[in-house]
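Below is a typical protein record.
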Amino acid sequence: MLSEVDTRPFPAPPPAFNLAGHLLARAAELANKPALVLLGAQDDETLAYTDLLRLTEGCASVLLGLGLEPGDRVLMRLGNGLAFPILYLSAIWAGLVPVPTSAALTEGEITKLSALVSPKLIVAEPDIALPASDTPLIAPDLNAWARTTPAALHLGDPHREAYVVFTSGTSGTPMAVAHAHRAILARAPMHQAWEGLGPDDRLLHAGALNWTYTLGTGLLDPWTLGATALVPAAGTPPAALPPLMERSKATIFAAAPGLFRQMLRAPFPATPHLRHGLSAGETLPAALRQDWQRITRTDLHEALGMSEVSTYISGNPTRPAPLGAAGYVQPGRNIAILGPDDQPVPRGTEGELAVSTADPGLMRGYVGHPTPEGLWFRTGDAATMAEDGAVTHLGRKDDLVNAGGFRVSPAEVEAAFHDIPYLTACAATEVEVAPGTRIIALFYEASCPLDPAHLHQTAEIALARWKQPRHYQRLSTLPRTGTGKIVRRALTAHYRKDET
């Protein structure tokens, strides 16, 4: 059996469509139900659905009043506050194109990204770096947005540009990814095939709002179904999240694996309202999922995706992924695991994950680059598919190491060290120790130096010989992208021969 899965197709989008309008179609009906709660250390800020709709319409009117026209891009330089989602929705409502960015970017970094998208307006809060440009600039003003005459919804081609996000930059320079209004319709399978999400849920997402994972899973999906989105205030430490889950009565919690690991090292209170957790952003180690199950008595469901197409493989409450696998192809998706000849490989054979270019969730293209062509969009992720259709993620194709003629997944090596005391994060890669001689090295973060003998012994117990690291090195901080993903290719620059 080949590793291609072609499920039933998505319905065609309406000829006149708007992502924000689809999202807020039931806002008036939901009235005073909380749409968004910003969870502070002391006080919370709550937006009801009617408030969210009113502010969205008002902000859209303000943007159009500045002379912006449909298709113009708006660069967002905002923190994790209420203004962020309102501006994002308002721009889309008006037919404009929001470009969310991380508030942590430096002037040099945001200048380069801004040049890629050529915004006609920047909306920024104080103390957030701005690009070196003469682009008009305004500050968010929720009071003014609430008082302004509402703007009419801008309807148009569902394939037109709706928003632009940046890739995390794990493969080098971040790319500007343009998504269409139709992308919201492609998220529908995730609601049950991954999130197990319903209108009565309260979903707490711990990521920054500029991250596509947070925007989609943390905001857009709850609002599509009329649920409540919960967002921690900026600067909330990992140890504070479990008590926050309990206080906010969160029924679903979403984060990246690294954050789950940090949370589970702190005391974890009872969370009687929690039904399950959601993990994405990087590979979920099997041991971490087991730790979560043991401590919370709920399951943790992983999804595999990327900025260019969101998630397309996942486990869910009714069909959990086998331990170690990412999950199953979501309904409506057409995916394959391809070999070098662009043909699907047999199940059980390693290849590269690819998504059909007909998928409505696939990006319009990278800004400044042509639209993806051909039958398949190659994701750069290496994977295998079991006979039952379960997909196991082996890591980025360019992250795989070749040890003694064997191709090894860094994620498999890293998982062996999950339970080492004091170790908080680790990453495996291949380093050249002499001309023509390459070995596997494990770089790690820990509160104190770890005993090399113990690390070697752990590897010998858990890994075949060719998978065992030959070098261990502690770093104060592993190299990461703005969204917290470890950049393995950057590790070789930190290699020091005098450490073991």
